[in-house]
Amino acid sequence: MNYFITGGTTGIGFELVKLYLSQGHRVAICGRDLSKLPKGFHEQHKKALWVYQLDVSDREALVKAVTDFTEKAEGLNVMIANAGRSVGSKSNIPDFQSAKEILETNVLGVLYSFEAAMQHFVSKKSGQLVAIASVAGFVGLPGAGAYSASKAAVVRLCESWSIDLKPLNISVSCICPGFIDTPMTQQNTHSMPFLMSGEKGAKLIGKAIESKRALYLFPLRMNLLITFLSLLPRFVYRWLMGLQTFNYSKQS
Ligand SMILES: NC(=O)c1ccc[n+]([C@@H]2O[C@H](COP(=O)([O-])OP(=O)(O)OC[C@H]3O[C@@H](n4cnc5c(N)ncnc54)[C@H](OP(=O)(O)O)[C@@H]3O)[C@@H](O)[C@H]2O)c1
Q1: What separation in Å is there between the alpha carbon of 237 and the centre of ligand 1?
Q2: Is the CB–ligand 1 distance for residue 183 below 6 Å?
Q3: Distance from the alpha carbon of residue 123 to the mean position of ligand 1, in angstroms
């Protein structure tokens, strides 16, 4: 099988790369800074690993890379739109520049990744689109408005497109992890309930992709917590979260 994984140089993406290479698959990855890949890794897997330096918000670059990989590896089976970013808030006032960058990467990046893959899936009437969204897509998390909004957009895109693309035999999977130990979460100073290792997270994601799960929220305890929070009357949710929200303006 041939997998294209955006943002496969670190974290969840890189764990998926290791998983698929160990199973004998061909994998392509992309990222803005390829030096994040461990030294010698590309050389070691040169026959099965393609690496592209690009920003997922650059539609043309992404289309070019996906086409190049599809030609050289003779096909594309699964597109995993994993590249994403999150910026911790240090103020009660939204950081609009960071919000724009988050939406560009987390929403447009997924859109462009899916579009690039679809060019190869439609004629074959087969393929799988996968997005790594987040449990944050089900509630508006304090201090993470743009991130929550970006993941909510991805959850809804996947839900709609899984229905639209079914007659074309193209499946859509939306993966919503809780906290996974990666360079992204290693910057967090807040508590991270049910934190899981990247390796374990990738194994669970790999299984969900293999079984073509349309929606996968994990781990189970985080699934239950987020489902509970998302079902609360919204005024109760806002009150509950407000009790815990740090008032940044009191810092100075
Ligand atoms: N870790 C968690 O707890 C968690 C939970 C839920 C959802 N997620 C989601 O899972 C995905 C992976 O997160 P992670 O924790 O593995 O993060 P990570 O360790 O920071 O890895 C992010 C990857 O995406 C790449 N990337 C970021 N912006 C990019 C861009 N504009 N263009 C191309 N590549 C880009 C990064 O490389 P460069 O920076 O070099 O480009 C890196 O390879 C994200 O979508 C994240 O929102 C993570």
Answers
A1: 28
A2: yes
A3: 30
> Sign of torsion, CA 16 19 22 25?
negative
Confidence of residue 247 (pLDDT cuts 50, 70, 90): low
**Does the Cβ of 113 fall within 6 Å of ligand 1?**
no
pTM for the complete prediction? 0.97
> From the CB of 32, is ligand 1 less than 6 Å away?
yes
Q: Are 52 and 27 in contact (CB under 8 A)?
A: no
- Judge if the beta carbon of residue 59 lies within 6 A of ligand 1: no
Instruction: Give pLDDT tens digits for 33-90.
Output: 999 999 999 999 999 999 999 999 999 999 999 999 999 999 999 999 999 999 877 7
| pLDDT band per the 50, 70, 90 thresholds, residue 245 | low
For the chain, list the domains and their CATH numbers. Answer: 2-250 (3.40.50.720)
Window from 117-121, 129-133, 190-194, 197-201 with minimum mean pLDDT = 190-194
Burial string for 182-219 (b: 16+ CB within 10 Å, else e) reads: beebeeeeeeeeeebebeebbebbeebbeeebeebbbb
Above 80 in pLDDT, residue 251? no
Nearest CA residue ID for atom 42, ligand 1: 7
Please state the atom number of ligand 1 nearest to the C-alpha of residue 29. 43
Secondary structure class of 18 (helix, strand, coil): helix
- Any ligand 1 atom below 6 A from CB of 180: yes
User: pLDDT value at position 86?
Assistant: 94
Q: Which atom of ligand 1 is nearest to the CA of 195?
A: 3
